[in-house]
Amino acid sequence: MSSATAAGVPPGPATPKSRKSVTGTRRTVAALFLLPALVLLGALVVYPIGYSVVRSFYNSSGDGFTGVDNYKALFTDDGIRTALKNNIIWVVFAPTVSTALGLIFAVLTERVRWGTAFKLVVFMPMAISMLAAGIIFRLVYDQDPDKGVANAVWVGIHDTFAQSSAFPKAHPGRQSPLEPDAGGFITSATVHTGQTVALPLVGVAPDQMPDNAKKAVAAKPEPGKITGTTWQDFTRGRGVGKLGTPDPSELGYAGMKIEAVKDGKVVASAKAAADGTFTLPADADGARLRLPAGNFKAPYNGVDWLGPSLVTPAIIGSYVWMWAGFAMVLIAAGLAGVPRELLEAARVDGANEWQVFRKVTVPLLAPVLAVVTVTLMINVLKVFDLVFIIAPGSSQDDANVLALELYRKGFAEDQPGIASAIAVFLLLLVIPVMWFNVRRLRRVGRR
After folding, report:
1. Separation between Cα atoms, residue 252 and residue 231, nearest integer Å
2. Could you give phi then psi for residue 424, rounded to 5 degrees?
């Protein structure tokens, strides 16, 4: 034992042999290990950002300094202004809807027996790339109901309540007694009881005729009634049939509606049988027979999902399909940490499930919901793939976003200066959101 210790004097601090980092590693060694990462970070992140900032102040050729002219174009160019407007729509709705659905799924699956399987199904789209998802939804939104799932469902629902006509292209042929009338057709002369009327039409392909259509037959006259036949009169002689007369190879217009019109009012109506024959009562005497426009209404073809007015909401729907599962998983992880005692205490105090959800569950999940929403906002600001793939050429201008406009300016229109300005502008938009997210994460980490 030394004399200083023996005398009761505490020893002074030992002189460190070498400077070490917080983890105990020598700083020189730590710097050597970090150097490759720093080089990659500088080459792949810092240099491109710096070069984009510099390039944004030059013209298309890169030779002339333009000052802030490229940045002025961000607010004067129609394409960029549309892209900026659509980005605002994306930032407001896409993260909000995705987070809300994720919250609903996370809360409900807690009470479902097969909740894990449901979560797996909802999260599965995250395994699909944006490219593949874009191709899938380009087909889903196809205008043709035979190809597009969305329109197939929509047309099926519509036709359940409003049946479409089977004769949209039918029209009078040669020597027909019919003439156009407000989208339909009407006889040029009046009809009388005891008379038979022929109402031939053409223009419907045989494979488009109703399934219940039968071979057309000539109607027989009946006393006190008006009878007739409406049929597909496609025979043009050749020694096989006669124009204006039902032939064995011709089909009747099954279900065709016939109205008797007198002085502008419908006094009687009938529907053609499977063989095209119809019968009108004596009230139709002296009237003109009309085939109303409803017989020739074009079939409902669904919604133009990728048209100018709906293309952006449609693409946002595909984004929500992909990212609602991501939000659900993160919120479910946060929900697992919510103290059950608080929920039970609220129920004991008389709160119903909606009140528990709104006043207890959501406030406790607020930090998680904020992180999810902010993360999706950052992701949405950079969205490119879905818009580029799903939006057809005719609607791409209406669905334009900043990332897509950056690509178009830089490659399609050869304006790298404006493209660099858009890139810098996007970076400036993302930085506040990232700063908010990092600050919140640090605050949570200090608790």
Report:
1. 4
2. -65, -40
Please tell me the distance from the alpha carbon of residue 124 to that of residue 118, in angstroms, as a whole number. Answer: 10
Surface-to-core class of residue 226, CB atoms within 10 Å of its CB (0-12 exposed, 13-18 middle, 19+ buried): buried
Q: What is the mean pLDDT of residues 328-342?
A: 89
Asked if pLDDT for residue 13 goes beyond 50, the answer is yes
With both helix axes pointing from N to C terminus, report the angle between 416-446 and 69-76 in degrees, rounded to the nearest 10.
80
Report the alpha-carbon distance of residue 80 to residue 392 in Å, rounded: 18
Residues 6+ apart with CB under 8 A from 63: none
Query: For the segment 96-155, what is each residue's pLDDT rounded down to a tens digit?
Result: 999 999 999 998 888 778 888 888 899 999 989 999 999 999 999 998 888 899 999 998
Retrieve residue 240's tokens: 């096989």
- Fill in the amino acid letter for 375: T
Distance (Å, whole) CA 143 – CA 371: 38
Under 8 Å between Cβ of 218 and 245: yes
Taking residue 411's Cβ as centre, other Cβ atoms within 10 Å add up to 11
Amino acid identity of 425?
F
* Count of CB atoms situated within 10 Å of the CB of 29: 11
First to last CA, the chain: 46
Task: Give the pLDDT band of residue 249 (cuts 50, 70, 90).
Answer: confident
Q: Which residues contact 109 (CB under 8 A, 6 or more apart)?
A: 115, 116, 118, 119, 328, 332
Order across the sheet with 226-232: list the strands.
196-201, 226-232, 277-280
Question: How many CB atoms lie under 10 A from the CB of residue 210?
Answer: 16
CA distances from 119 to 26, 114, 362 (A): 46, 9, 20
203, 170 contact by CB (below 8 A) = yes
